[in-house]
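Work Package 3 (structural annotation) set out to generate three-dimensional models for the target panel prioritized at the project kickoff. During this period the team completed the workflow that converts sequence records into discrete structure tokens, so that structures can be stored uniformly alongside our sequence database. As a representative example, we reproduce one entry of 393 residues exactly as it appears in the project archive.
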Amino acid sequence: MTTSANSEPWRALPATVADLIEPELEAITREILETIAEEVPEYARPLEGRFGHGIRTGVGEALSQFVALIRDPGMGRELGREVYVGLGRGELRQGRTLDSLQAAYRVGARVAWRRIARAARQAGLDTEVLSLLAEAIFAYIDELSADSVEGYAEAQSESEGLRERRRQELALLLMREPLAEAADLRAAAQAAGWKVPRRVAALACAEVDLTRLARRLPADSVATQLDELGCVLVPDPVGPGRASAIERALADSQVALGPVGGLGQARESWQLAKSTLRAIEAGALPSGRLVSAEDHLADLLLFEGAAFTLRIAMRRLAPLDALTEKAERRMRETALAYVSHRGNSVAMAAALHVHPQTARYRVTRLRELLGDQLDDPDARFELEIALRSPSLD
């Protein structure tokens, strides 16, 4: 904190000015309190209880400390700052902005200057000292105001931190298996400031995108960090206007959307959203700003079961291992066309972009390699799983 006379003009005042002001303190305090009650609507009530004590203390401390600083500028303001930091914090707790408190400070400065100037003129204070006294009063009030802004900001930050913790607790509660009791969910939702929706879906995004995304999504969304990813629970994402609001919020973020369901399905929605995002990052699903798990359930099954499909592939496609890379790729394409079109050579030819006779020739070669697998329903099913698995690409 700077201690120059420019920033703290009371340092340049003669100590005798304190003796001039001190007898006026009681009257000044009374008039400031009366004027604040008249001119600041939020404070137009009896100064009783905690509220009244805070205002009276603030005014009294401000005037006493101002006189003490004139007598001994070296004492500094640290001992008295906490009163005004506390007033700022109190405004946030009361759900008010700082406008009322700032207005009260302006009233206090105006009344104090009017009363002190009158006493100074009566005492014959010269104009240069009088001018410096005015500057000192208003600079001092600015410092008190800055203290309250600091307190308000601190309380706001703490409140946001608490709200974030409450929302993370809520998200974790919703992800529990089995689902938490309805009463526990309601209590957690109330603590987090969240109105319990009828339907909800989970969004998964990169952790670094969470803050920016959360600011742009509908205000009733719950955003938190979960499983080293960004998790956002969005109430009724398919409701009127909700889909477009989500789209607008995405910007350039890559987001995966889980299925919509009741609170009991929130965990399932998150698991699918998370799996979808992982699949996109692995190249197993096409990327896009918003990818819905519901549109890729079969692909997700193959992606999540990669270890199993690899074992199936090793068993069912082993006869192709002896082929050249090019021939193996051609036989896999032929096998997938075969199981997809049930051996119809015309449909296979269209899918493979070859002549039907070529398709029939390829099937003959495929039968030589895979044998009875092409005629066994269970084997054909496993073949299709293996051939469609992204892990084989």
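The chain has 16 helices and five strands.
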